[in-house]
Design goal:
Elements (H helix, E strand, L loop, with lengths): L8 H12 L3 H14 L4 E7 L5 E6 L6 H6 L27 H7 L2 E7 L6 E7 L2 E8 L4 E7 L6 H4 L5 H18 L4 E6 L2 E6 L5 H9 L1 H4 L2 E9 L2 E8 L4 E2 L5 E5 L2 E2 L3 H11 L8 E2 L1 E6 L5 E2 L10 E2 L2 H19 L35 E3 L57 E6 L3 E5 L3 E6 H18 L6 E10 L2 H7 L3 H6 L3 E4 L4 E7 L9 H18 L7 H12 L8 H12 L14 E5 H7 L4
Parallel strand pairs: 1-7, 12-15
Antiparallel strand pairs: 1-2, 2-6, 3-4, 3-6, 4-5, 7-8, 9-10, 10-15, 11-14, 12-13, 16-17, 18-22, 19-20, 20-21, 21-25, 22-24, 23-24
Length: about 625
């Protein structure tokens, strides 16, 4: 009895769709890439119900004739690959011939297309992989694709989709990535009849970055001039020293205009920034790399997310040298010290990015609310930090911490409390800009003042939250902070916990939060929006590390404490004694909420061994 049989075409297409079409964002990715390959100068995307009800992509590209419109829905039918030699030098975004038939097999699919100069176009309707009709149409030149009821005939796949906001956030991310890769193309994204953004084409890369990421990001970028080294050509923008994020959300790398991720790029960036990039943080980069297509293999994964280099170490080395030179120049070092990288040659003008015009910020992420007078209470709110010790000064937001610590005037230190228990350490001297040296019974003790403040503020915030909430201080002018759909979807369930920690956050509609109060240690002349952004970044990272559980009060308290502890070390022995006393009064004084030590000890035995004594 024969056991092996050939799968029906419809079933084979659904199996292939499992690799190509993971979620609605995969459909948008494949269709936008087809529009780019067709030479489109404008791409409009419409999304309804997170992409499950409707995805519509309209472009003004080259379009197709009637025969091609029908043939493109056959598996492995493509105009982008002719011979096996061409597979070793891919220059287009797509080449497999699997996307359209895979999408059509799991949706109600309508393709309308017309070539420029043609008298009429063609409409092809497919229902779950079954061809329904082919007829003439009168649409404008280009291609118009509608994908309705995605996964309606594959319920097992549909039930694994996330919430509508989550699915749309993935779609938005895909559109943003391709909009960055092609600033010469106009993009628009509409969600449920609401236009989210419209980016005009023909501008420069910095203008497109300002439109998508905001002027605050665009202004802190260093330009990477078009430079070639050992077969690799690099251009784009990278963040200056001190501009970093705690996730890879602002790392965009494009290889031959294709958005890709590779450990080769990550290692090169780490090496280029070196000590200018704090451990656990990631740089802000918008990099375009060009390499001979024969030197890279993009045919690794059906979704084309990964690439392999023939000489990965060579690419890594060249990229690190180019970026290191840019970062050194960005530090304003003398020209003699910022030596040029040997082997730099001007690159060929092929596929160059458009020239940079004056930056026009069409979108700004942070926007102040209309100024309305907010009356302060008759009496100042009590601070959770006692005033008889060094009070916290205005913090520096994590997203804008420079390479060197910002100078902050020292706060006055109160006289020692005569009734306090004596310290187990004798205060010696400050060490550098962050540490204090002390002597204990067993040896030398070193205090990290920032880690100490994190532990103190964390335990105080946690205690106050358990007792009813941290006392907050009203802002004179509330601010509004707009987030991406993904960030907003993440934050919304945790607003009540933020309020317990003294951060007055309320839903303002349109992916926007209204911030009207902050804990006392946040107030002052600091960048409130930057503080909130850094706090949210910390919370997102905590959520990424524990995706199966909701954020706890301890997690939020740790993030609040981490953002508040931007203080200089005590200026004198009295201040160091006060800080140490408060630290030793904590439940777990010897580590910060993230597990880093607050105090370390070098015993007398260890010192004797270092000096060669028994």
């Amino acid at each position: 009895m024969q056991k092996i049989k050939v799968l029906p075409d419809a079933l084979a297409s659904q199996v292939a769709a499992g690799e190509v079409v993971e979620r609605p964002a995969s459909v948008v990715k494949e269709l936008v890439e087809n529009s780019i390959d067709a030479g489109a100068r404008r791409i409009d995307i419409l999304v309804r119900q997170g992409g499950t009800a409707l995805l519509k992509i309209v472009d003004d590209g080259s379009g197709m004739g009637r025969e091609d419109a029908v043939l493109c829905l056959e598996r492995h039918a493509t105009s982008k690959l002719r011979t096996k030699e061409g597979l070793a030098a891919i220059t287009t975004m797509g080449f497999r011939g699997e996307a359209l038939p895979s999408i059509a097999s799991v949706s109600r699919f309508t393709l309308t297309t017309r070539e420029p100069g043609a008298l009429s176009g063609t409409t092809v309707i497919v229902d779950g992989g079954r061809l329904v009709t082919v007829e003439d149409s009168g649409e404008a030149p280009g291609t118009h694709i509608e994908v309705r009821n995605l996964f309606y005939n594959v319920p097992a796949r549909r039930k694994f989709l996330r919430s509508e906001n989550t699915e749309f956030s993935h779609i938005e991310q895909q559109v943003r990535i391709h909009a960055l890769a092609h600033p010469e193309i106009a993009f628009s994204l509409t969600r449920d009849e609401r236009l989210l953004f419209h980016l005009p084409g023909g501008g420069g890369l910095r203008e497109r970055i300002a439109g998508l990421a905001g002027m605050e990001v665009a202004e802190k970028l260093l330009e990477v001039p078009r430079t070639s080294l050992r077969g690799l050509t690099v251009t784009g923008f990278i963040g200056e020293a001190g501009t970093h994020r705690s996730s890879r959300a602002m790392m965009f790398t494009f290889l031959n205009r294709r958005p890709v991720e590779s450990p080769v790029f990550n290692y090169a960036l780490r090496g280029a920034y070196a000590e200018a990039l704090p451990r656990g943080n990631w740089p802000v980069v918008f990099l375009f790399l060009e390499i001979d297509p024969h030197e890279v293999d993009v045919n690794v994964h059906p979704a084309k997310r990964e690439v392999r280099f023939r000489d990965g170490l060579g690419v890594q080395s060249a990229l690190m040298e180019i970026l290191s030179a840019v970062i050194r120049r960005g530090r304003n070092l003398p020209a003699a010290e910022a030596a040029p990288v040997e082997g730099f040659t001007p690159a060929a003008p092929a596929r160059a990015l458009p020239p940079e015009p004056a930056v026009v910020p069409p979108v700004v992420q942070w926007r102040p609310a209309p100024r309305q007078p907010v009356l302060l209470p008759d009496e100042p709110a009590a601070s959770p930090v006692p005033r008889d010790v060094e009070p916290p000064v205005t913090p520096v937001p994590e997203l804008a911490v420079p390479a060197a610590e910002k100078e902050v005037p020292p706060a006055p230190i109160a006289a020692p409390d005569k009734t306090a228990a004596p310290l187990p350490f004798r205060i010696l001297n400050p060490l550098g800009s962050r540490y204090w040296l002390m002597e204990g019974d067993e040896g030398l003790v070193i205090l990290d003042h920032r880690a100490a403040w994190e532990r103190i503020l964390f335990e105080e915030a946690r205690t106050c939250a358990a007792a009813g909430g941290v006392v907050s201080q009203q802002l004179l002018a509330p601010i509004t902070v707009t987030f991406s759909p993904r960030e907003y979807d993440f934050l919304r369930p945790h607003l009540h916990r933020l309020r317990l920690m003294g951060v007055g956050a309320a839903d303002f509609g349109g992916n926007t939060l209204l911030i009207d109060s902050l804990p006392p240690f946040y107030t002052g002349d600091g960048d409130v929006a930057g503080l909130i952004s850094a706090l949210i970044s910390d919370l997102q990272n905590a959520g990424d590390r524990a995706p199966q559980r909701r954020l706890s009060d301890d997690t939020i308290a740790a993030a609040v404490a981490r953002q508040a502890a931007r203080l200089r070390p005590p200026e004198n022995a009295s201040g160091a004694a006060r800080l140490t006393a408060r630290l030793l009064a904590c439940e777990m004084p010897y580590c910060c909420p993230e597990g880093r030590p607050t105090l370390i000890q070098i015993s007398f035995q260890e010192l004797a061994r270092k000096f060669g004594r028994r």
